[in-house]
Amino acid sequence: MSSVNPNEAEFDAFYRAYYPRLVAMAFALVGDLDEAQDVAQEAFCRVWRRWDVVSRYEQPIAWTRRVAANLATSRWRHLRVARAHLRREQRPPDLPGLDPDHVAVVAALRHLPADQRRAVVLHHVVDLPVTEVAEELGVPVGTVKAWLHRGRQTLACLLADPWEKVADRD
């Protein structure tokens, strides 16, 4: 006797068959792969909650696509409102502009794994002591120290002046 509910097996097959296409559709609507995957996952979660009804539709995927399109539209509207709000916010006149070094550091931070990046930012930018970083991230102090060490090493390589390397060879 199988332990898988026939409805679950049917839904699993439906999910496997249509998930990639739904992500592609959502990506075309939202323009961001992570958001598209979130939209598709949420659409399938909603389908799963109503699978007993949706599975009897002539085209369950049509209902799923409609749900995904509505979710994408809602997210797009939310982002549009957020952008409009940000545009209304005025930058205080006493803030200095971004210098090239700041931009380079931020770009280099994007190359760090998320845990290392959070640790480096909390410690070196927010200026939290290692113990507070550990507490905020919910990890041991030793883990934070390791993340900081590896993060600083990676940043040093990413931010190294290529001309200094050439000069060192001479």
Shape: elongated
Radius of gyration: 24 Å
| CATH architecture descriptor name of the largest domain | Orthogonal Bundle
Number of domains: 2
Chain oligomer state: single chain
Main sheet? Answer: none
Kindly describe this structure.
Helix 1 packs antiparallel against helix 2 and helix 5 crosses helix 8. The protein is elongated and about 65 Å long. 78% of the residues lie in helices and 0% in strands. With 170 residues, it is mainly α. The chain folds into two domains: 83 residues, Rna Polymerase Sigma Factor, Chain: A (Orthogonal Bundle), CATH 1.10.1740; 62 residues, Winged helix-like DNA-binding domain superfamily/Winged helix DNA-binding domain (Arc Repressor Mutant, subunit A). The chain contains nine helices and no strands.
